[in-house]
Amino acid sequence: MNLFDRFILTLYSLALVVISLFVMAAGLNLISSDYITDTINEIYSSSEVGLAYFAAAAIFLLISLKFLFTSVRGEGRVRTPASVHNPTEYGDVQITLDTIESIAMNAARHIRGIRDLKAHVRAEENRTSIHVKVAVDGETPIPGLVEQVQQTIKERVETIAGLGISKVTVLVSEVAQPGSGARVRRVE
């Protein structure tokens, strides 16, 4: 919640406190009925006073609607990033999917023949899989390179994060032609 919303919420709460105290006092007959009747008559008889009450009520209504829609849409909640739950003997550990992606990418970056890569982690019930999209140099045999990428990522993530990886899927999206330096970004 930003500073402006906090300020409005504070004013809104104070207004509700004043209105609640007034209604409670009227309910206990601490405020005379003549005062309440005179105030209501003044609202009906004077257009300026009626307009002021209308404006205050309209502002109060708008603030109420704003807070209602904010609560329904869920704004202001802290969103927990997607993560994998890993119980240990000492307690629970949650590792974000972004962290696992980072570990996977760092592992594959150091493999000779990889030019560019992207990783995406998918966590389902008791299964974590990693999908990697790579561009290769065109000089290293693809089957051996893909197998090395899969093995390296699986071992590195399991070692560092302590998670079991069910599979590592590799998509070779581009093969750079030997000697052509165009569109090739070396990742090392």
TrEMBL record:
InterPro entries: Asp23. The chain crosses the membrane at residues 7-31, 51-69. Keywords: Membrane, Transmembrane, Transmembrane helix. It holds the Pfam family Asp23. The keyword Membrane applies. Belongs to the asp23 family. This is Alkaline shock response membrane anchor protein AmaP.
